[in-house]
Amino acid sequence: MAEAGGRRRHPERAEAEREAAPADAGSGRPSAEARPDASGADAGPGAASVAAEEAAGAACRGDPWAGSPPAPDASMVAFARRMRGEFTRFLMEYRFAVDEVLTKVTILREEFLHLHRYNPIEHVTSRVKTPESILGKVVRRGIAPELATIRRHITDIGGIRITCAFIADTYRVLEALTSQDDVRVLEIKDYIADPKPNGYKSLHAIIEVPVFLSTGTVPVIVEVQIRTIAMDFWASLEHKIFYKHAGEVPDHIASDLAEAAAAAEQLDRRMEQLHTEVHGPAPSEAEGPADTEIDDALLRRLWELSRSSGTGP
Question: Which terminus has fewer CB within 10 Å in the chain: N or C?
Fold first, then answer.
């Protein structure tokens, strides 16, 4: 999004800045350090009466900082207690859902390595948003502060990022993960085939997995991002650059970032081509698993046992 002065505003960065902004920022409200001390504790003789007169005058003028803040009413206290209690369980469900998906990814990683003799997954990271981040987004979007509504409308509370070596690997991992029976696919966005305007590339899958609790099964949404090493490198540096410029990047830097994204894509495709020239195409299931190390003496005993039981060749 372009702005005056040849600077470009990144909407995702702007949202993140609002999440991180202090409560008083931009409101015209003075910070705690800047607010005058009306107690008169360190003032000279007669300061107490002067402070009282100032406070009375401020109250008459409608000064919002005059006097003590009003005590919360009973309904607000009850709401706060309920939200705290429910939010603890809410976030726990997302942590469990992330763990479920991580387990699936670990199994796929081991299977690819030991059965297909190739591991397309380089590394995996995960996170669950903080309560402050979640509720800040709720307020900005005007979402009803009910957990069921938050669950439906905010789909990136739990997130996993899978980094692969090559572009073909990203699609292979996506297919292997989303084809599982207990994984419900809600949405897939292919930013590799159709990059964002700034050059960002990745596969995004919004999936729903069951979390089995003592009280029953809870379906929980998790966002999975799958990208190559080059895509991850570019996205990480782009993220740092936009934060450095407070979300407003000069047009020439935004243009250079787009060119760097194109260079990263060329690197991806060239490295994949070199890998194929050296190792051939990715192994398929037809090639069979790698041999398991079993002691020769034990194999002989198993062979004799199979013959004696009539099950051998």
Answer: C
Q: Which two tokens stand for residue 109?
A: 């990683």
Q: Which residues of 237-272 are buried (b: 16+ CB within 10 A; e: fewer)?
A: ebeebbeebebebeeebbeebbeebeebbeebeebb
CA–CA distances in Å: residue 109 to residues 117, 217, 231: 11, 26, 20
CB count within 10 Å of CB 164 equals 24
Q: What is the pTM of this model?
A: 0.66
Cα 63 from Cα 300, distance rounded (Å): 92
Return the active site residues: 223
CATH for 76-230, among 3.30.460.10, 3.40.50.720, 1.10.3720.10, 1.10.10.10? 3.30.460.10
**One pLDDT digit (tens) per residue for the chain, 313 residues:** 444 455 555 555 555 444 444 444 344 444 444 444 444 444 444 544 545 555 545 444 455 445 566 777 888 888 778 878 888 999 999 999 999 999 999 999 999 888 877 889 999 999 999 999 999 999 999 999 889 999 999 999 999 999 999 999 999 999 999 999 999 999 999 999 999 988 899 999 999 999 999 999 999 999 999 999 999 988 887 777 765 555 576 777 777 777 777 777 777 777 777 777 676 766 554 455 556 677 888 888 887 888 887 665 5
